[in-house]
Specification:
315 residues; elongated; five-stranded parallel β-sheet; two-stranded antiparallel sheet
Length: 315
Amino acid sequence: RNQNRRVTMASQSPLAMQEDDLKLLLAARTHIGNENVNAHMAKYVWRRRQEGGVHIINIGKTWEKLMLAARIIVAIENPDDVVAVSGTQTGQRAVYKFAQHTGCSYIGSRYTPGCFTNQIQKKYMEPRLLIVTDPLVDHQPIKEAAYANIPVIAFCDTNAITRYIDVVIPCNNRSKHSIALMYWLLAREVNRLRGAISRQEPWGVMVDLFMFRPVHEEEEKKADDAAQAAEALAEAEAAEKAVAEKKVETAFAAPGAYAELKADNSAFAAADDAKAAVEGTIAPDFAATVGEGSWANVESEKWGDSAAPMTGVPQ
């Protein structure tokens, strides 16, 4: 009876995992862990696959830790005091979008040592909470957060080292789809707890915006878009040309148009008379003009002897 009551209370809780969220987690392969497992991460492992030897993460515990992390983030009054760090390329776009939608700070490039401990540094920060994408890669900010007594929330795989980490969110942090979905779910839950969005309506931000895209994929996408635009333009031009040709053929192929024009012999007769008149005016009989003799019968003589003398010119 107590177990049934717990199940009923969990189903009625607004923080409970919905069916759509479960489908997203399974589609992004968030539950696929690593072949190795750390002793501190063994409690988050459900079982191990016989094929491949990878460990399967318990999604229920992943969701519980995700909700706990969202409540911790909301408890901080100034969102700028929360810093999300990602040293891997797959999480750089995710932390940027997470910071954009929650108002927190982020470090999406190489972490400069001393950001949390060296006060004379230009990029010195004093956060109240640190969110880490991969503890194995972002070990330096975790260590400095431990020196400065900063609580740490980390997305940990089964082989992660949980030292100096306060809240462990077990998930697959190697896949770009998984880490993007985890940051998207965390940002959505933070906005829901703040009252920015409603739980009854889906969030208008797509998960694809949190996913990392390599440069070559973006270039290929631009090239494909340009090729599709060129093909559409060529098809439009061909269609316009075909329509124009169809109009011309329709105009000349009208039934009885040429027959009516040919039956009207007066138009053709008037055209023939005008042509003959023009030829008689411009091109008269050349033989009648120059005489019956030919150029071959002309006596050879010097043209200068027959030319008239020029006046006013000294001889």
